Amino acid sequence: MEWEIVMGLEVHTELATKTKIFCGCSTAFGGEPNTHVCEICSGMPGTLPLLNRRVVEYAVRTGLATNCNITRKNKFDRKNYFYPDLPKAYQISQLYLPICRNGFIEVKAADGGTKKIGIHEIHMEEDAGKLVHDEFSDCTLVDYNRCGVPLLEIVSEPDFREASEVVDYLEKLRAILQFTGVSDCKMQEGSLRADVNLSVRPKGQAEFGTRTEMKNLNSFRAIARAIEYESRRQIDILEDGGKVVQETRRWDDTRGVSYAMRSKEDAQDYKYFPEPDLPPIEISDAFIEKVKAEMPELPEAKKRRYIEELGLPEYDTSILTSDLAFVRLFEATEKLCQSPKDAANWIMGEVMKLLNDSGTLPEDMTLSPEKLAAVINMVKAGKINRGTGKTVLEKVFSQDVDPETYVKENNLAQITDLSALRPVLEEVIAANEKSVSEYKGGKTQAMGYIMGQAMRALKGKAPAQEVQKLLHEMLDS
Amino acid sequence: MQIDKDLVTYLETLGRIALSEEQRAETEKDLQSILDYIDTLNELDTDGVEPASHSFPVANVVREDEVTNTARADEILQNAPDSREGCFAVPKTVE
Q1: A463 and A401 share a domain?
Q2: ipTM exceeds 0.90, yes or no
Q3: What is the number of structural domains in chain B?
Q4: For residue range A340-386, what is the model confidence (pLDDT) as tens digits?
Q5: Which of residues 17-76 of B touch A (CB under 8 A)?
Q6: Chain A residues 239-278 within an 8 A CB cutoff of chain B
């Protein structure tokens, strides 16, 4: 039987605000345990939450960037559950009136075309604290630094059929969140987390199968592997005549397996009710207009501008806009070297290779546009050749050297004074008598060898064309 | 709404309490009478009336995104029944 995989995503993203959603504690990552904690986010009795204005702004920004309708009358709800990562024993979230609804993101479909993935809703909520289970004692240690950090939960429709669509959607969504300044989306710090809801059904069947939810997916690669594993697992169960159990499963990326965490709760298990401590939020036209006006340029708009104004091929624009770090580097470098195509080529070629080889994430890159532009400009001016340019860039990338100083100190500049070439070539001719006489005897291929020796003697620092011209002049007379 | 024994058992789970058989029967009866009483409200015509979640006509109470709190883990941890290594210590809970 042919099976079809049906998936939906729940993405949680931590917002790049300075403070938590309901109190003035810092959201800075790291820091000693419980140093970003106050009475409000540690859930002390008698405290009241006070909403951070920027959270609403960022939520609306995200909604507009993903083609959503913005809910004008918002309120918060309590999601009650008993677990020490939330000291109040409830999470303040939005169930009944989420701030954004009915949006979409366009992704590459598996058949090569494009496909709209529906966004069911986006709601505002608070993050939970971190638990450390001590192996040697009977207690769990809790750090509430992350507790109360603002989150957006972005819930897609069950529109995915292939792992590649899921990965493309996440890449697009991450770019949108980064470009709008809503989140830095560092998966390793947990500021972008994706849960995958997955079920399978015989191809052609209209009803959905029973789904499972997979958590702890910490990289795009892990997501693709987990989808592969989980769909296989469900198909095997069904083909053996079994039934898929609705449950939450945890992905173990090291072992490449998922295992059941708990049976899936129903919404009513959470005993949702309207949050009495927070008055409603009403969003006006003026507010939406203001957010629109302040919206940073989105990836799709950037692509169009790069094509129309800078004359870049579409392929280049897709790669450059895949990560905000590339965009920042490209836009500044392009201005400094006055050549968009050179800037694009160096970033897509050398810079990405250096990132790959060193296992550096784009956002952790220290390469400055000034230094990259200096290398490009030296190559463009013929001061160094392209090969030397690559070597210099590698040094800039790994040791942050100054490119111009490095070229000078290591004597890498091209010989531009042609009169300096002649004595070197005379030596080469004298040292290769055999090849020279072969050449003079009519064996023209010998020129290749002499040329090679000459470039070697010049350490590749002279323009090959000039060297060849001069050799002909000296030998053909 | 009809309260039955299964619902009472389910509520016990959600509320993390254990009732005796007698208490269950009593709870079933009490909850039923409370809900019947509340049902009176359903006789009201609420078409076109928005559900109220708050008693006061106040909206948009917000603060600016400025850090106002400083680190004072020691003070905060004094609220904890037990603390270790700068953390709140609670009975072991593994999900």
Answers
A1: no
A2: no
A3: 1
A4: 999 999 999 999 999 999 999 888 899 999 999 999 999 988 888 88
A5: 53-54, 56, 58-69, 71-73, 76
A6: 261-262, 269, 271, 274-276, 278
